[in-house]
Every structure is written in structure tokens, then in C-alpha cells.
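Sat 14:20. Reprocessing the chain from the morning session after the first attempt stalled halfway. Input below, unchanged.
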Amino acid sequence: MDINKVMENLEKNGIKPYFVQTREEVVPLVKTLIKKGESVSNGGSQSLKETGVMDLLNCSDYDFIDRTGLEGEELRQAYIRAFGCDTFFCSSNAVTENGELYNVDGNSNRVACIVYGPKQVIMVVGVNKIVKDINEAINRVKTVAAPANTVRLSCKTPCQATGKCVSLNKESPLICDGCASEQRVCCNYVVSAKQRHKDRIKVILVNENLGY
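Finished this time. C-alpha cells:
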């Protein structure tokens, strides 16, 4: 794995890369990328918790759009507000050496904000999520990210029980192949390649294993 190559290709694709050695360096860097009083929100992410970013967002310096505990119309309104926020925080299910971001969601508020809406998107990504190409990214979601997230979210899916997507039982599984569960977490698939809005998406690569 060549971090410099990954960063160079992210830059070519209009995605601003940053690199830090440890998780403790993430919050100080984030503070330079957002201003006090700005509206901020987030997608579900273990990486944000592990690096202290969630604690930062919860402080009084920012207008944090927090959906925790909300349901029904209140939850929908929080999603709509997040779509127009100044900065949206999340991680990425995978980052390819070619500088592409691969993300798969169930509810899909996260991928919606990645694609469009917030003025900027800041992703915190451990080196464990760097893969060679999109095919490896697809496999990573089916064998690592999705099963782990179903456990975290208590979703009753085949991958929660077996640790891998049921589609891998096929000889040649396709990207969208999966289970028929009502609680399936793989519903919308997004590849972020060349970006028209240069540097809107920022990726902080951390030289540690983070999240799923």
C-alpha cells in the first residue's frame, strides 16, 4: 500500500487528502477545517467515535444537528437539515488506490450527503479501509463493513449470523446482490470518482486501523 499514491490520486479526482499518523491528531486537524458556529452533522461512524470527532461535534462551539433518539417526522427534518449543513462528517467504507471512495448504505442519508448537499464533507478513514480497486472495495463491504454494521445496529440479516454477505455463495456475485431482509443495510451503492466541486470532499487518512 502506497499512501502517497492514494493521496495523489485523490487529489487528481478533486478530493482533498490529509494524512496523520495517529488518531489523536485528527481532532486538532478538524478544528482547522471548520469554524465555530457552523452547522455540522454526521453519518453513523465508529471511526468518528474512535478519533474523538463525535465529542468535538457535541461541544457548544458548533451547531450540531444531532438525530440521536429522534423518530418519525422529527428524524426526517433532522436529515433534511443535515443535507444543507456547512460540514458533514462520516467515514468511507473503502478508499481505492485509484482515489475513489466506495460507500454502501441502508437508510442512505449518509451517501446522499456525500454526493450533494453539505458545503463540505470530511471523512475520517483508517488505513485498514484502503483497497486496491473497486472490486476489492465491493468485497470489503460484503465481508467486513456490512456484517460488522449489522451487529452494531442489531439488524437481523444473514451476514450478521455468518459474517459475510449471502451473495458470496454465488459463483460470480454482482455488486448489488444481497439478502432479502427488511433490515438489509446494503441498499444504495455510491462510487465517488472525479469531483466537479474540487476539495468539497476532504479525506483524513489515519495511519491506524479505525472502524469497520
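The two ends are 18 Å apart (CA to CA).
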